[in-house]
Amino acid sequence: MFEDINDLYQQVILDHCKQPRNFREMPACSCSAQGRNPLCGDKLQLFLAMEGDTVKDVSFVGSGCCISKASASLLTEFAKGKTRADIETMFGQVHEMIKTGKVVGDVGKLAVFAGVYKYPARVKCAILSWHAMMSALKGGNQPVSTESEQN
Ligand code: ZN
Known about the structure:
CATH class: Alpha Beta
Mean pLDDT: 91
CATH topology: Sufe protein. Chain: A
Oligomer: single chain
Bound molecules: zinc ion
Number of strands: 4
């Protein structure tokens, strides 16, 4: 049973890795932020178009491992149409889930990353796009690095 769920999760991750959604630059964005994970070599840039407190459009470009790309792809799918507060709440839930495997509340499709905590080297890959998102929402154009994260 668990094996089947893991297979399904892996398929979703592979699908988003091979065909990332919202994978494009956004020249007319409201804000953008870069994220880097030097341990793995993941690099991405996230673009946001805001309307008040709501994400009207979101996209990203970058290169990296499958987990980091799939995470960014699923994040952009989740974030479109959400408010800043929605995203901050989900960041808390996803961060906890990726680090501990504990799923709190309804994380939707992002549950595919619930197994990442078993692979500590991959935790930073999975959380990278979320750090970039939080930085972009704050309007900070400072690149964020997973190596400055307080774990
Ligand atoms: Zn990675």
